[in-house]
Amino acid sequence: MPDLMQAHEGDAITYTYITTNPGNVPLSRVSVTDDRIEDVTYQSGDSNGDSMLDTDETWVFTATYNVTTDDVSPLVNNAAASGTYARSQTIIAWATASVDILRPAIAINKTAEPAQAYEGYTINYTYTITNPGNTPLFAISVIDDKAGNITYEGGYQSGDTNGDEILDTDETWIFTATYNVTTDDVSPLVNTATATGADALAQTVTAQATASVTIIKLEVEITSPEDGDIITSRTITVTGTVSDPTITEATIDINGSSHNIAVDNGSFSSDENVSSGVSVITVTVTNGVVVASDMVTIIVNIPTYGIRVELTWNTSDTDMDAHLIRPSGQYWAIPDDCYWENKNPDWGLSGVTEDNPSLDQDDTDGYGPENITLEQPYEQGIYQYKVHYWNDYGHGPSIATVIVWINDVKVAEYSKEMSNNEVWDCFSIEWPSGQVISTPE
Fold first, then answer.
1. CA 144, CA 128: separation in Å to the nearest integer?
2. What is the pLDDT of residues 306-363, one digit of tens each?
3. Boundaries of every domain in the chain
4. CA–CA distance, 419 with 318 (Å, rounded to integer)
5. pLDDT tens across 298-320, in order?
6. pLDDT recorded at residue 302
7. Residue 303: is the preceding peptide bond cis (ω within 30°)?
């Protein structure tokens, strides 16, 4: 008998041959042969050690066979036991054993609908799973590198004709899944599905299939004016293109005020009024599912407003430092904080100097003044101002005085006696309103 009833190619099957003597005379020269195995080895049973198979003995032989790729299933082999009596009379007995050779396999086909999709569209995938092997498969699943894990419970649709959750060789199972196209997906969107199953001996088999979907990107581009332009006229012409020629209308927004403009065969042009200062122009289009936009920031005319803060203190041979921090910025962080080690950070548009703060000096031996100016604040939000008593060099407390100008108009003045290494959260400025708010002690 074999120790395995099922096996794979490469597995070793151990056969055990139980040999008995149902006659009435002992047998000599007892041996076992197998039509598939050359070496069949005696193991035990000759209780009296006389090399004779007595009528009350049971001899055990064993042999091992390695399954090959040429073996068909079931693997049937024949064994013959022979013995001699009366010196020359030979008798033979035959026995067979059968082992099923499992050759598991799985196949998958995958389709996608639609073949073209915009960002935000839902793609429907269909997976057709078959079993081209010779044995049923258990624990069928499909993993899609875009749509995720698809199980019998979560994506199976049909095909398990007997309802046993086992993929038989004559069954075709259908799974489905969906995927929503994102802005990060490139075209073509190619994703891979892997089908997995296991046979009765827990050997796993897999197969893969891919599907391709063309991703249509909805894009809009403002071609005039260009980002960072300095405009000297209050009336500008905004032109641009849209990648989808079916779009007939777009929305243009300038500093929060918006209206619709016409799009003709993918192009648009609109005359717009802008006010002095920084203007953010955004054009947005949609096809009903996907929204696309482009934005440029321009500077209109010469800036008409600005921020200037002066710091002085009343003790010589001491060092105080001014800090102006941009909206959402961090104290001591570069480039967020304009101070002695970061006197002229780039806060605004590239190549423009008027929207950057500037510290005129770092006075390290008393009195000041230290002035920070920001001619044209580009960023909207809350600017913070702090004073740091860096070092009193043994001279003790000193009174700091801060004066704030907005658009060259003095709007606030603050004073505070400070101790060595103290940090004074003096005030903040809300922009673009220009409102100065003192920080409570």
1. 13
2. 899 999 999 999 999 999 999 999 999 999 999 999 999 999 888 888 889 999 999 9
3. 6-101, 107-216, 220-300, 307-438
4. 11
5. 988 644 458 999 999 999 999 99
6. 43
7. no
CATH number assigned to the domain with residue range 307-438, chosen from the 4 options 3.10.310.30, 2.60.60.30, 3.40.630.10, 3.40.50.10330: 2.60.60.30
Beta strands in 243-327 (DSSP E): 249-254, 257-262, 267-273, 277-286, 291-300, 307-313, 319-325
Encode 109-119: b = buried (16+ Cβ within 10 Å), e = exposed. ebebeeeebbb
Nearest to 195 by CA among 297, 314, 108, 293: 108
pLDDT of 134 reads 95
Q: Which letter does DSSP use for residue 285 in this model?
A: E
Give Cβ neighbours of residue 10 (< 8 Å, ≥ 6 apart). 66, 67
When pLDDT is averaged across residues 28-33 and rounded to a whole number, the result is: 96
Residue 2 preceded by cis peptide, ω within 30: no
The pair of structure tokens assigned to 344 is: 């002229």
The DSSP symbol for 218 reads P
CA distances from 86 to 54, 186, 229, 304 (A): 14, 88, 118, 130
